Amino acid sequence: MVVKHKAIFKTESPWSNGKGVLLKLDTGSWRTERPVLDVSKCNYCGLCALYCPPQCMFDRGDHFEANLAFCKGCGICAKECPRGAYKMVPEGEFANEG
Ligand code: SF4
Ligand code: SF4
What average pLDDT does the structure give for the chain? Predict the structure, then answer.
């Protein structure tokens, strides 16, 4: 079954731009960790966006930010970041957010 979803952003990532073919499945509430960025460590190299499997990073002009509607919490962005700018944080720490 193919779940259709209209892409929210025009530029989710460097190479899925324009088609948004990979952004089909909302993550919902099952992600156990989320990537949190320390912008001061980021040099805008783009590796996190390049390696993100669902291509859910979008370009903020001086850094890449995970679109949490589609982020699966795999941690690859944090693993690949050469500057340790992304850190995976348990979802429980955001339990009180609206
Ligand atoms: S890989 Fe790290 S340093 Fe490079 S853009 Fe992503 S967060 Fe920034
Ligand atoms: S945790 Fe995985 S899915 Fe989420 S932004 Fe990082 S690489 Fe992409």
Answer: 82
Q: What is the pLDDT of residues 3-19, one digit of tens each?
A: 454 545 555 444 554 44
CATH number of the domain to which 55 belongs:
3.30.70.20
Nearest CA among 40, 54, 55 for reference residue 85: 40
- Does residue 16 fall inside a structural domain? no
Phi, psi of 16 (to 5 degrees): -105, 10
Which ligand sits closest to the CA of 38? 1
Q: Is 85 in the pocket of ligand 2 (CB under 6 A)?
A: no
Residues lining ligand 1, judged by CB closer than 6 Å?
37, 42-48, 63-64, 81, 83, 85-86
Q: Which pair of structure tokens corresponds to residue 84? A: 């340790």
Q: Rounded to two decimals, what is the model's pTM?
A: 0.80
Q: What is the pLDDT of residue 27?
A: 83
Number of domains in the chain: 1
For ligand 1, atom 3, name the residue with the nearest CA: 42
Domain enclosing residue 63, as ranges: 33-92
